[in-house]
Design a protein that fits this description.
The protein is an alpha/beta fold and 504 residues long. The protein has 2 domains: 16-201 and 362-462, 3-Layer(bba) Sandwich (FAD/NAD(P)-binding domain); 206-269 and 305-358, FAD/NAD(P)-binding domain. The chain contains 16 helices and 18 strands. Strands 1, 2, 5, 6, 7 and 18 form a 6-stranded mixed beta sheet that branches. A 5-stranded parallel beta sheet has the order 9-16-10-11-12, covered by helices on one side. The protein has a 3-stranded antiparallel beta sheet with strand order 13-14-15, with no helix packed on it. A hairpin with a 2-residue loop joins strand 6 (173-180) and strand 7 (183-194). It is elongated.
């Protein structure tokens, strides 16, 4: 294991007993296996992970434990403090998942959030938590990366991917075009995991009526938003899911004069349909279900709507300047004297700023670094044709993934190298049944992807491993160890007894 990189929370900064318990656990499970993946000239990394959040951290830990040690974790952020969304773009007060879900620690309690939080705040404080406080999560992740020795290369952005064909014993792999600290660089890797967040397989979904406004007058919830600048301003929020309510909540808390939230549904989504299949049998085996079942379940979720936690709704309801508009759409909007004049549900409104909490498109063609491979990769529309009453263009554009969350060829035989790219972001939702990258996905899907990568790396190098299997093996000991105890027969025993008697 690599030496820990000191971060803002160096070991023993919180509670020496926490670090001692974590290090003891790591000692008890044994050091990570030596790297077993066959080296090849011209290949820099065995696995590259894009993104250093809880997804990248979990994969790095799991890959280490699988003996795949030639890792490369990259992040476009300037440093750890700027990485991820928790400190900057996420606006919920608590994570939206239960506090006791298995996370990056993958079942080792001494490395989990509960152990870390109790060391900081005590057992009673954890017991009193409803869910994990948002700003505690990146602090925990910093400690987890440190205690497990995860190295991250910041200021490193993926720009483009291209295949490198197999040559001799060098297997097929990928060439990554990167920007490192502002400079172009090319590196190679055998496997690539895209753990790059909610828009990692597409782009923000911005309604055309909003996108047509001057950019200074609107933002998507995935943008950095200066909420202080919205003090005493009139704010419109479009969308009825959690991110919309969270943005509205922050705007109200920062002193917005008025916040109106507009949703197309005539009611707020409140049916958490994913819970119906949250039991172990369904959770563990979901990726094995037929396409028709997975499609219908994804459509059911889409139709029920993404539910905002009750506390996110309550957060805005306590402000008298908040107004909720249900069952309406924006018919038109235009800029007028530095403001937005909108026609919504037959009424006219003036706003100083508009925030679109309208989710994301899943379409690889919308990602600059994936645009060149998008025409070659299968989408759900290429593999499954639903009945007419179940068609949904948004779901149809999701990438169709294999059992290791790897891309598939649209046309068999045209781009087999796509199998080396693993999607671990919400673009994998239709295939996996969960928004990959969210905490609930870690326990099942990280080991599943790592196992698939391990199998692929091993089998593609089978001739080299076969040589290792059949190589000479030195003995643990020689015949000298037991030669004196060899039975020589009764005559030898009698002679040895007589000799011993004579010497006495």
């Amino acid at each position: 294991m690599a030496a820990p990189v000191r971060g803002p929370h160096t070991m023993s900064h919180i509670d020496p007993s926490l670090d001692a318990a974590a290090l003891q656990t790591l000692r008890w499970i044994g050091a990570p296996p030596d790297n077993w993946v066959s080296p090849h000239q011209g290949i820099d990394h065995d696995v590259t992970v894009v993104g250093s959040g809880h997804t990248g951290s979990t994969f790095a830990f799991a890959l280490q434990r699988a003996g795949i040690r030639k890792l490369n974790v990259i992040d476009a952020a300037a440093d750890e403090a700027a990485a991820g969304l928790w400190r900057h773009r996420a606006r919920m007060q608590q994570l939206r998942t239960p506090k006791n879900l298995v996370g990056p620690e993958l079942g080792l309690p001494a490395l989990g959030f509960q152990a870390w939080y109790e060391a900081r705040h005590g057992e009673a404080a954890f017991a009193a938590l409803d869910r994990i406080p948002r700003l505690e999560w990146p602090l925990y992740l910093s400690w987890f990366r440190e205690i497990t020795g995860l190295q991250v290369r910041y200021q490193t952005r993926l720009l483009r991917i291209e295949p490198v064909p197999a040559q001799g014993q060098v297997p097929e792999h990928l060439r990554l075009h990167l920007e490192v600290a502002g400079q172009p660089r090319t590196e190679t890797t055998r496997k690539l995991i895209l753990g790059n967040g909610v828009a990692g397989s597409g782009a923000p979904n911005v309604p055309p009526v909003v996108a047509g406004l001057p950019r200074k007058l609107w933002a998507h919830t995935s943008d950095l938003i200066d909420f202080n600048a919205l003090r005493n301003r009139r704010v419109a929020v479009i969308g009825g899911a959690a991110s919309a309510f969270d943005a509205a909540g922050v705007a109200l808390e920062q002193g917005a004069a008025e916040v109106r939230l507009f949703a197309r549904r005539d009611h707020l989504a409140a049916l958490p349909v994913l819970r119906a299949r949250g039991y172990p049998g369904a959770y563990d085996n979901y990726p094995l279900l037929p396409d028709a079942v997975r499609w219908t379940q994804a459509l059911r979720y889409q139709q029920a709507g993404s539910t905002a936690p009750a506390d996110s709704v309550q957060r805005v309801l306590k402000h008298p300047q908040f107004h909720l508009h249900l069952g309406v759409t924006w018919q038109a909007a235009h800029a007028h004297e530095g403001q937005v004049r909108a026609q919504v549900g037959g009424e006219n409104f003036d706003f100083d700023y508009v925030i679109a909490g309208t989710g994301f498109h899943a379409d690889l063609a919308l990602r600059p670094e994936l645009a060149s491979l998008a025409p070659l990769a299968a989408q759900w529309r290429d593999r499954y044709q639903p009945p007419a009453n179940e068609r949904h263009d948004g779901l149809a554009s999701h990438p169709y993934l294999g059992l290791g969350s790897e891309l598939q060829e649209k046309v068999p035989g045209t781009a087999p190298w796509l199998q080396h790219i693993h999607i671990y972001n919400p673009g994998g939702f239709v295939s996996s049944g969960l928004p990959l990258g969210d905490v609930p996905s870690l326990r099942r899907d990280v080991p599943r992807v790592v196992r698939h990568i391990s199998q692929s790396l091993f089998l593609s190098d089978w001739p080299l491993h076969e040589q290792r299997f059949n190589a000479p093996v030195p003995p643990d000991f020689t015949e000298e160890l037991y030669a004196h105890a060899l039975w020589q027969g009764p005559e030898a025993t009698t002679a040895a007894t007589e000799l011993a008697a004579a010497q006495a």
